[in-house]
Design brief:
eight-stranded antiparallel sheet, seven-stranded antiparallel sheet, Rossmann fold, 19 helices, 3 domains
């Protein structure tokens, strides 16, 4: 959500900024802009895509070795040229780019308006930069000091980069509740919302923490906290390469990431799981494994697709560890007064590790004495740093907004955690433990088999691309898969879709079924097989169209369903890893055939870093 990129060095800034903004397009945005210093501040910004900005700037490239760039996802003020970032202060001496929301901007704006300040946008960001300008003027202080004072007075979340007309050799960056990374090159510095704009220039990065301010000059980088205490920068090495953020010959990142799942799941297990030896090692949770074994209750906190992964984990923990689990929407959890006791286990699931609601929910749980564990993909992300322990997915960067490989990677890591705890707790037999280890190790090959059905799924997609509604049904471990399948379809194709436990169909959704209603049923061979057959018959009795995901070799359901997609046989506890893949492909092809932007669906952002 929103994207920041900035540069200070010896090279021309504009091409680096534009390239960086294109790298950040996956985050979701509606307008874009850059500010450059060439004797004075020059700002170019435009509603629309980065290509619209390039066309607006024209073929004569602005010359500057310092600059800031932004992709905006509208919060305050509609998408428009005037609300696009960067924004100037009232005196036109300062320019800012900003991710986040300044909650008390209204009161600040009134005070500034009373002093005669004029505003040309509807944004909280313009208010913030004029507030900094006013503090600098009133206190006759440095820009660095004015930024520090201003940030101590504002309420909300921010990641900002500021440049000054009076100093073409300095950038000031700061963050609170919104991610920011600084790349350290040879005589040059980069600032960005995440590492994707930086990776092709340097692998040396510094992740800013909350309430930290970076003062970047051509010769130096210093970091202070908001109390003006100097800090020692900690430089890390990026764990990604350029090939991971390129499409690699695929038409879209989403399709690439669907087809990457055999490798991404294998990467999740590499060095952790050896089924032949019966070994399962999760060093990231070793310190609190005893607490997990003895836990009386686990609370899982997540949003969106990660919440669906949490539902599968609930079934797994309760089935094999015999620990009661609650799965909470982070956005609801943080605004309730939840019952959390000291020593409770709280597990946060997040691809980006920057989800604002999840981070706020974790802070709440931590304040009540809970043990906080994280399951995240992005190394060095905020959630990975505020949790007590956790496990990285190692799935590689996920660029497509609609999560695919992160979901299956989350399931893989959560399953390994469950099996590790169940084995130590003695709530699973040795025979079943080793069976599930072997099954889990075989999942990449089984997904490769599913991917061979891509052409058939594309054919089915063409038949239903104009449907107005879809219903997804599943039971047991496959119920969360039904939810995830419905979410994928509506996210990227804009078709209304709902996921339900199959038995709940009779309690309302059955009223919707007619000859125009496609019903996707996850009907693999498991303990609920006979019941799911009954549900299919109920749909067919009302002339519904059934698209069934079945286990290879099934002879009963193909006689009832209108269309069948086969997946390899698999233990039902691990079936979500396999059964979700055809649903990902179905949503991809339908969206593509409807002319939708698969990688950047409207109104959505990859990482929701504001409330």
């Amino acid at each position: 959500m929103c994207g920041i990129v900035a540069y200070l060095g010896d090279h021309q800034a504009y091409p680096i900024l534009i390239n960086g903004l294109k790298r950040l397009e996956y985050r979701g945005y509606d307008s874009t802009g850059v500010a450059l210093h060439n004797g004075s501040l020059n700002i170019y910004k435009k509603k629309g895509k980065v290509t619209d900005l390039e066309n607006f700037v024209g073929e004569i490239i602005p010359q500057s070795t310092i600059g800031i760039g932004h992709t905006r996802w509208a919060t305050h003020g509609e998408p428009s040229d005037r609300n696009s970032h960067p924004h100037c202060s009232s005196g036109k001496k300062l320019a800012i780019i900003h991710n986040g929301i300044i909650e008390n901007y209204g009161a600040i704006k009134k005070d500034l308006s009373d002093k005669g300040y004029k505003f040309h946008s509807d944004t909280d960001t313009e208010v913030l930069i004029s507030f900094i300008e006013d503090i600098k003027k009133e206190n006759d202080c440095s820009l660095e000091e004015a930024v520090r004072i201003a940030l101590s007075k504002v309420v909300g979340a921010y990641a900002i980069v500021i440049m000054s007309a009076d100093n073409p050799d300095m950038l000031i960056a700061a963050r609170k509740g919104s991610p920011m990374v600084i790349g350290v090159g040879k005589g040059e510095y980069f600032v960005a919302s995440d590492a994707t704009p930086i990776i092709e220039y340097t692998k040396d990065v510094i992740y800013l923490n909350d309430d930290e301010i970076a003062i970047i000059t051509r010769n130096d980088l210093s970091i202070k906290n908001i109390d003006d205490v100097a800090l020692t920068p900690y430089i890390q090495q990026l764990d990604m390469d350029l090939a991971q953020i390129e499409k690699g010959g695929y038409d879209h990142f989403m399709l690439k990431e669907i087809f990457e799942q055999p490798n991404s799941i294998a990467d999740c297990m590499r060095g952790r799981l050896d089924a032949k030896k019966g070994n399962l090692v999760l060093g990231g949770i070793s310190k609190y494994s005893e607490a997990l074994v003895n836990s009386k209750r686990i609370v899982i906190i997540a949003c969106g697709t990660s919440w669906h992964a949490g539902l599968v984990a609930e079934y797994l923990f309760e089935e094999y560890c015999r620990i009661p689990v609650e799965v909470e929407y982070a956005s609801e959890f943080r605004y309730r007064n939840p019952v959390i006791n000291e020593g409770d286990i709280v597990i946060a699931i997040s691809q980006s590790g920057e989800t604002a609601d999840t981070m706020a929910a974790l802070e709440l749980a931590k304040s009540k004495g809970a043990i906080i564990l994280g399951v995240v993909n992005a190394v060095g992300s905020s959630i990975s740093r505020i949790t007590d322990e956790g496990a990285y997915l190692h799935a590689g960067p996920e660029i497509g907004v609609a999560s695919t490989k992160a979901f299956t990677a989350q399931l893989t890591v959560l399953t390994m955690i469950v099996l590790r705890i169940a084995d130590r707790k003695g709530t699973i037999t040795k025979e079943l433990y080793h069976e599930l280890l072997s099954e889990l190790e075989s999942i990449p090959e089984k997904i490769k088999s599913v991917l061979k059905s891509n052409a058939k799924i594309e054919y089915i997609s063409d038949l239903f691309k104009d449907a107005r509604n879809f219903l997804y049904l599943g039971r047991g471990f496959n119920f969360p898969v039904a939810l995830e399948g419905a979410l994928k379809l509506k996210e990227i194709s804009y078709i209304h879709a709902e996921g339900y436990p199959a038995a709940e169909m009779k309690h309302g959704p059955i009223a919707l079924i007619d000859e125009n209603m496609p019903v996707v049923v996850i009907a693999t061979s498991d303990s609920s097989y006979d019941k799911i057959i009954s549900n299919i018959q109920e749909v067919k009795a009302r002339k519904g169209i059934v698209i069934a995901v079945v286990t290879e070799g099934d002879v009963l359901i193909p006689k009832m369903a209108d269309f069948v997609i086969e997946v390899p046989a698999c233990h039902e506890a691990l079936m979500p890893l396999v059964s979700v893949v055809p649903l990902q492909l179905l949503s991809y092809h339908i969206a593509l055939m409807r002319g939708c932007n698969v990688d950047q669906p409207r109104n959505l952002a990859k990482s929701v870093t504001v409330e």
